[in-house]
Amino acid sequence: MTSNRQWILKRRPEAALRDEDLELKTAVLPASLERRQVLLKTLYVHLAPTTRNWMNPRRENDRNSLYPETKVGEPVKGPAISEVVASSHPDYPIGSRWFNVEGWQEFALINPDDATHPLGRIAEAADVIQCLSVLGPNGLAAYFGVEKIGKPQAGETVIVSGAAGSTGSVAAQIAKLKGCKVIGIAGGSAKCAWLTRELGLDAAIDYKSERVESRLRQLAPAGVDFFFDNVGGEILSAVVENMAVRGRIALCGQIATYNDGGRTVAPLNVMHLVYWRVKIEGFIMSDWWHEIEEARSKINEWILQGKIKHREDVRHGFERIPTAFADLFSGANTGTLLVKMDS
Q1: What angle do the packed helices 137-144 and 292-304 form, to 10 degrees?
Q2: What are the tens digits of pLDDT across the range 194-240?
Q3: pLDDT score recorded for residue 116
Q4: What is the C-alpha end-to-end distance of the chain, expressed in Å?
Q5: Labelling 307: which of 71, 74, 265, 286 has CA 20 to 30 A away?
Q6: Is the pLDDT of residue 127 over 80?
Q7: Structural domains of the chain in order of their starting residue, each with its CATH number
Q8: Contact 249, 280 (CB under 8 A)
Q9: Please, which residues bridge with residue 182 across strands?
Q10: Which residues are registered as beta bridge partners of 256?
Q11: Quick one: which of 55, 48, 109 has its CA closest to 82?
Q12: Closest CA to 286 of 99, 63, 113
């Protein structure tokens, strides 16, 4: 273990990430560790939309991310699960596995005490893939967004954007478990068919071939009681036009905006929000950090009972990370998009 391949952010992307924005480099690992250092070997990288947001520069008084941006000349930050292969820290034994955001590199040398984002230990018996998907940040965000923000009641109408994705599919299924009418928004007929045939949603809207706003008026004539939004942009605008009185909107992600600096450019009918007394609330999973294990246990119970289905799109090979990441924004992935290091 003398070398470490890394995907370096060569320059800040102006729109979608391009090959010339990245550079593949090989760093040399030190022969020994300093006090309380840990050497992590990456097992899986989770290609999450927020990774693109972290590539944007942080301007003064910027509120578009809680975490520092990926600096030019450094490895791209992003969620991963890694194994400790060398350690001088008593709390991080060799062989233990940890969730981290050290990102697009084969190894990461860190002092966990100084880490910007806390590491989360993965139980020995846990399924690593599930810990990055349905039982990981995406599934937990879905659970908390529905349970804590939306609080949908039986008989209400729930809309989920990005419904065929890792977070959206779980949110939609939880809403169905609560007895709601659930309509998913996704891109492409195959994804929409999966939502209705496999997940049991009441309807699905293909934003690539249908007008979301007018289709919603047909499917939800009484209005939308709860909207779980992963996309933002024009889809958020369309759903706002169809919100019911005292409707709730949970803002989980804004993938439509990340290539534009994370700022929504589509107009919102604010007067509709005012007169219909619609509540909009953003949230992050760690708002309920102390409830994570309870939430994970509940989701796993639903999985074992066959009440929640999930799927992962696992690619293989460190060198495929940038290509796979592009698929995330074109919608070419099916489920949680992961890259296995295979080394």
Answers
A1: 100
A2: 999 999 999 999 999 999 999 999 999 999 999 999 999 999 999 99
A3: 81
A4: 12
A5: 286
A6: yes
A7: 3-133+311-340 (3.90.180.10), 137-286 (3.40.50.720)
A8: yes
A9: 158
A10: none
A11: 109
A12: 99
CA angle 65, 67, 70 (to 5 degrees): 100
Token couple for 227? 């909207």
HSE-CB at 107 with a 13 A cutoff on CA atoms is: 20
Q: What is the mean pLDDT of the segment spanning 155-161?
A: 98
- Separation between Cα atoms, residue 249 and residue 145, nearest integer Å: 9
Alpha helices in 178-211 (DSSP H): 189-193
Which residue do the tokens 């994705």 mark?
A: 165
How is residue 295 written in tokens? 């939430």
Q: What is the pLDDT of residue 260?
A: 64
CA-wise closest residue to 213 among 165, 161, 153, 164 = 161
Residue 60: partners with Cβ closer than 8 Å, 6 or more residues away = none
Q: Using an 8 Å Cβ cutoff, are 78 and 101 in contact?
A: yes
pLDDT of residue 153: 98
Instruction: Give the amino acid at 256.
Output: A
Phi, psi at 112, each rounded to 5°? -55, -25
The residues with which 122 forms a beta bridge, in sequence order, are 97
pTM of the model: 0.87
CA nearest to 296, candidates 160, 168, 147, 102:
147
Q: Is 18 helix (H, G, I), strand (E, B) or coil?
A: coil
Determine the length of the chain: 343
Which string of DSSP letters, residue by residue, matches 135-151? TSHHHHHHHHIIIIII-
